[in-house]
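ok trying this again, last paste got cut off
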Amino acid sequence: ISDVVADIITNYDVDGIVFDDYFYVQGITDDMDEEQYQLYNPEGLSRKDWRRNNVNHMVRDVQTRINTIKPYITFGISPAGVAASSLVVAAKYGVDPAPVGSDWQYDGIYSDPLAWLKDGSIDYISPQLYWAIGHATNDFSKLSPWWAKIANHFGRHFYSSNTSTFSITELNNEIAINRNADQNGTTGSVYFRTNNLAQATINGLKASSYQFPALRAAYGWKVAPEQSLVENLAVAGQNLTWTYDNESVRYSIYAVPKANRNDAGVFAGSKYLLGISYPKNYTLPQSVSALTHDIAVAVACPVVAKHSDR
């Protein structure tokens, strides 16, 4: 598995790697791994602990390989939506148990997401919270803040995985719950599957919760060199261009109305962010020009960023 990930990140220009919730086969019997259990269990672990430990080692090995090749690439997992509902399991990690739901993955597919968070072997967790607010057994409004708190406790990021089949009202309400839990580490939402989002739902989200673009949160524990400023920033009509000697970065483009150029929060949020570019050019909207706006381009990487403006 580590070799496959290494091949992907070496030969393809990807931003990150994500694993879904497939580990041991659900319903696995002792006969299915008896030989391996007898041969490769130097710590003398119980079969259940041994299986979970195998998964944990695999996750750690993938993270190590990524950091060796391209440390700016992020690695996360999208496990089942409920974990550590057991008081015993939660106590092992010094946290409160999940407030609702039942954790079937721990002894079902031998998936222990809190182990990856505690170990720091993933950058983010995106549990599959495919339930509505007020669900009888797996209430989104209780599970999402719990996951945010857990991820923050271990210093990693949390993105709730949301179903794309819900109404625009439900999705907006779920986004609001995540944003209200910001102090606990909620950094965004993932939709499965985005291709299944109705165009009307996409338009509704863009008109409500997602009116403005935003940069993904910085991964302060990742290794990344400090970047220099872009050079030769120029505007010709609506075409913005610049030069830079590093191809392994992306760029964030800002347009600040000249009347607001002294705004102390210019680069602290997404208020003036136009968008992201991978090539060294960007088409400005018709409402933006060098006459009316100060235009800046920042080298955006997971840890640090600097901006050049004109």
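PB: full thing came through this time. The longest strand covers residues 250-257.
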